[in-house]
Amino acid sequence: MNKVVKDAAAAIQGIESGMTLMLGGFGLCGIPERSIEALVESGVNGLTCISNNAGVDDFGIGLLLQRRQVKKMVASYVGENKEFERQMLSGELEVDLIPQGSLAERCRAGGAGIPAFFTPAGYGTEVAEGKEVRVFNGKPHILEMALTADFAIVKAWKGDRHGNLVYKGTARNFNPAMAMAGKITIAEVEELVEPGELDPNHIHTPGVFVQRIFQGSHYEKRIEQRTVRPKA
């Protein structure tokens, strides 16, 4: 089955205002840059975005926040975005902050068809408010619900027209879990190859989870926080 579409604009067809989106990446590493740009251009709004980070002010999900296209942000870390901070403190933006491991597992559970699970992470904090608590092996755990999305948008290093994906290094991060949890999954890749070119033993996301794929270009691959040692 050929799942290739022309570009990001074609890939995001069907995404409407008010939908829930998962966007892969960690910080600025492995984010679907071209798809986010297409969403900005499309003008859809009222979005609920599930992503580990909220981008920075002028890149990634930060671009959607600038245009007031995001209604709610579900994330584990949001400290690099002043516009996000402003919208959150002013009450313009709904925010659900989740411990990072819980966020990853909630996405993975959604993709695996597991509706909920118990975890000790967050017990005794605001994270646990209103959630069921049970004790396992003498330790309190809170009930966390799985996360799914209308569309999951991920970024991979290589992919084929069947939708099989390979991620590179730490750019793998949240992408495989989110790819499984979307009703429709869009993959943008740096290199689109022919079926058979990817070693089956090295495929991270099988094509069964991907409905649309396209090859992007001119990726910036920014470094969010650059730290170097001073010259001797």
UniProtKB/TrEMBL annotation:
Signal peptide residues on this chain, from the entry's feature table: none
Molecular-function annotations in GO: CoA-transferase activity
Keywords associated with the record: Transferase
SUPFAM superfamilies: NagB/RpiA/CoA transferase-like
Pfam families recorded: CoA_trans (PF01144)
UniProt keyword Transferase present: yes
NCBIfam families tied to this protein: pcaI_scoA_fam
Name of this protein: CoA transferase subunit A
Annotated source species: Neolewinella lacunae
Taxonomy of the source species: Bacteria, Pseudomonadati, Bacteroidota, Saprospiria, Saprospirales
